[in-house]
Amino acid sequence: MARPQAAAVPATVTAAATVVLAGGHESDGGRDLTALVASAPAGAVAPAVHAAAPAGRPLTEAVRSALAAGDGPVCVVPMTLGRDPRLVADTARALRWLAAGEGRGRLALTAPFAAAEHLIGWLRAAAPAQGGAVLVTAPAADPFEDAELFRIARLARQHGHHRWVEVAFEGGDPDPAEGAERCRLLGAPEVTAVPASFGPALRTPVPGVRDGGPLLRPSAIAGVVAARTAAALHLLGHGEDGILAGLDAEHGHGYAHSHGPGEAHHHHGRDQSHAQRHVHSH
């Protein structure tokens, strides 16, 4: 049975929206997204990106500014590549009171920028065609998110064409130099670093490691942001702002936990059936 898809939103409607990007560890708190922050030129069909900010007070202030700048809808995109469910939940918490106040009927939380499945495909596409090892790099996060990157790298290797796909973390263990040395010890003749983030593959050059460049070009990032915005506007037209569903994003993340006899497990997003039927992958 075909997966339901969101109804198309006219480009003029999408262009009328203002976007705020919520950044986490995958974008250095949004600093790696500053190139996307610019007003849309006249006649543009893409939404204007008003600001990029980390979740919390900076994001709240950025959204307030976007709401005050016009009377159109404001969409907030959690800029995760699939490894930062906390960013989605923190963003929802930051928007909750705004949506009940000055943002009522105008403020929406979009689906996350990407899921792990997207990241696997993008890593495969970004890896060099020639042989050698791929060193997947990312800023260090918490143990669960770092462990998730090892799983993603293993699947990228399984479905790709490289014999060696290793992982390294900026500010973590192993760091890029240690990851490159592991590749060499395994027999790789050359090593190319590819980022699993919105930032550079290597913030500090590592001798003997080729920098594979960014994971996605700005135009590709802008295209996904536009698609997430269009889907969120469609749902906002049905009275669903995505915030309740976002509050549950961290469920299942971290250590497993159990419930006692008769103890119910409550979910904020249980009534988001319409959103689940209409959100689709880009």
Topology of this protein?
Blueprint: H1 11-16, E1 18-23, E2 48-54, H2 57-68, E3 74-78, H3 85-100, E4 107-109, H4 116-126, E5 133-139, H5 143-158, E6 164-170, H6 176-185, E7 191-195, E8 209-211, H7 218-236, H8 243-247, H9 273-278
Parallel strand pairs: 1-2, 1-3, 3-4, 5-6, 5-7, 7-8
Helix pairs in contact: 2-3, 4-5
Give descriptors for this structure.
single chain, 282 residues, 2 domains, four-stranded parallel sheet, 15% strand, disordered C terminus
How would you describe the overall organization of this protein?
It is a single chain. Residues 1-10 and 255-282 have low confidence and may be disordered. Helix 3 (85-100) links the parallel strand 3 (74-78) and strand 4 (107-109). The chain is an alpha/beta fold and 282 residues long. It contains nine helices and eight strands. Helix 2 (57-68) crosses helix 3 and helix 4 (116-126) packs across helix 5 (143-158). The strands form two sheets. The chain has a four-stranded parallel β-sheet with strand order 2-1-3-4, with helices on both faces. It has a four-stranded parallel β-sheet with strand order 6-5-7-8, sandwiched between helices. It folds into two domains: 11-114 and 217-254 and 266-278, no CATH class; 116-211, Rossmann fold. The protein has helices at residues 11-16, 57-68, 85-100, 116-126, 143-158, 176-185, 218-236, 243-247, 273-278; strands spanning 18-23, 48-54, 74-78, 107-109, 133-139, 164-170, 191-195, 209-211. The longest helix is centred in the C-terminal third of the chain and has 19 residues, at 218-236. The relative contact order is 0.16.
